[in-house]
Amino acid sequence: MPGGLILPQHLAMSAMHEHMFGAAGYRAASRTNRNTAGWLTSTGSADTDTLPDLQKLREQSSDLVRNEALPAGIIAANVTAVVGTGIIPQSRVNADLLGISQEDADRWQTRAEMIFNQAADKPHWDSERKQTFWMQQATVQRSMKERGDAFAVRRYIKRAGKKLGLCVQIVESDRVSTPTDAVGLEKDIRAGCERDSDGAAVAWHVAQVHPGERFMSQPVSVANKWTRIEAYDKNGDPLVLAVIPMLRPGQTRGVPYLAPVIEMLKQLTRYSEAEIAAAVVSGMLAVMVTSPAPTGPLSGITQGVPGMVLGQAANTQQKVTKLQSGMILDLAPGEEVQVVNSTRPNTAFDGFVTSVLRQIGAALEVPFEILISHFQSSYSASRAALMNWWRFVTKERDFLVQGFCQPCWEWALTEAIASGELSAPGFFDDPVIRAAWLGCDWVGQGAPAIDPLKEAAAAEAWHSLGIWSLQDISAQQGRDFDRTFRQRVREKGMRESAGMMLPTDAQPVDPTAPPDQGDVNNRSSQSASRAYVQAELMKDTL
Question: With b meaning 16 or more CB within 10 Å and e meaning fewer, what string describes 56-87?
Fold first, then answer.
């Protein structure tokens, strides 16, 4: 090679290939391309590219969330949108498969939800007695985004006032690590995950003390021990919930959500702080008074006078002066006032920061408007941004439900059925029957509406076309349809008994009866209003 340069084997072979057979199929992959010649790449596996840097990424991500406004807001907004006040279970048993009536299914579902909620609503749900199930949802989501993954361990602790012994322990990801004495063991243990020959987790190793614990009587390196927890019990039910977003096949541990933009976020913070400091310094200077330098035998004495500095010219000296309200400058003969021209605030600051924020938002699947919580676009543009964001939130919520919420539901109901609190024939005999009993829908807070009237008109149109059911619309709004329906029936009965009627309670109009002019005008007005709303909706969505 020229200049005695020694290339790695794969690079040397690639260069030889280009020399013999011509340029590469992709110009970016060409070793002779000057734009990419210094681009160092690797072909490591998912764990090879992730695990060596994972601890540092966690530390950087957590530091940003603790100390920087924008990263803290990004994580907080994600948790609020995905979890909100809690994702609520709605039992949905398969009555046809189980051979029971819908009425019996409804009664079973109501009791199942009551048993679960009785346990989930109390801090007893938490092994540390600190959080309810709904609080744990937010903790798991936050840990997953900030640290890369989250873990929950199934435990049983009988406590007073609690029907179920089930307790769920949330374990911070840093505690799941490889024991220091695992070196030399004939086991595949990676970052606390003990794997079988297929790469599946068979056990997790959890440190009894967090590696960053400071409030101890002795160092962690001396006191720490690890507990090996089987991943599944003898029936195949999980004992440990590893909530890990998978980016690549074969990946063992998760990567913090902010990992692709950590450097950019830190640099943006430094740039903002530098601009703020420059603006503060510029605001302190008001004017400079320039006067001729004294001449004669005493000319050198003034050099030591406070506030007097030698100017750039040999015959001038400058005195920095602060302006105050109502201040009058009394200038000596020959003195001149020079106003300090500040370049702050930087006019290019907002445009540059906006460009950087758009790149950050693109990497995190967060529209710019959502990222900074600022909407200045039209209804259509704002709605498009909100819908894109909500698709991401829906995906995130579904992942949390499948990885944490639904397994907790199954843990609780399995214990309730085993203890006789719930009757479920065939539950322990057939996995299909078991799944039919454990069916559940999870409803979170609905998507925010920019214009509720237009959103309602769209929902009514979809319902009229038979595409959406009332239950679908309720779920979109984050409401329990069954509970809402029962409450509406109750309210209707109360109004009828009290002689109070609402327009929606009116009987259908008899088509053979002569039309009432007031009713005609009213229906005409309603039809016109509905037509106007639908026309506006279609105009904005085209």
Answer: ebbebbbebbeebebbeebbebbbebbbbebb
Distance CA 317, CA 224 (A): 68
Closest CA to 319 of 332, 343, 342, 280: 332
Which residue blocks in 238-378 are alpha helix, DSSP H? 262-284, 349-364, 368-371
* Closest by CA position to 150, among listed 129, 175, 122, 127: 175
For the chain, domain boundaries: 1-41, 453-542
Positive/negative CA dihedral, 182, 249, 242, 235: negative
pLDDT digits (tens, 9 = 90+) for 222-279: 567 899 999 999 989 999 999 999 999 999 999 999 999 999 999 999 988 888 887 7
For 411-456, the pLDDT digits (tens) are 999 999 999 999 999 999 999 999 999 999 999 887 776 667 777 7
**Quick one: 264 exposed, middle or buried, by C-beta within 10 A (0-12, 13-18, 19+)?**
middle
pTM of the model: 0.75
Rounded to 5°, angle at Cα 118 from 117 and 123:
95
Structure tokens at 282: 């510029």
Quick one: tokens of 374? 């600022």
Band of the pLDDT at 212, cuts 50, 70, 90? confident
* Of the candidates 354, 441, 458, 444, the residue with the CA atom closest to the CA atom of residue 390: 444
Contact yes or no for 49/253 (Cβ under 8 A): no
Nearest of 171, 132, 175 to residue 153 by alpha carbon: 171
Question: Taking the CB of residue 119, how many other CB atoms lie within 10 A of it?
Answer: 23
Q: What is the pLDDT of residues 281-308, one digit of tens each?
A: 776 666 667 777 665 555 554 444 444 4
* Segment 105-159, tens digit of pLDDT: 999 999 999 999 999 999 999 999 999 999 999 999 999 999 999 999 999 998 8
Residue 487 has which token pair? 């409450």
Q: Where are the beta strands (DSSP E) in 2-125?
A: 88-91
* C-alpha dihedral, 249 to 254 to 256 to 259, nearest 10°: -30
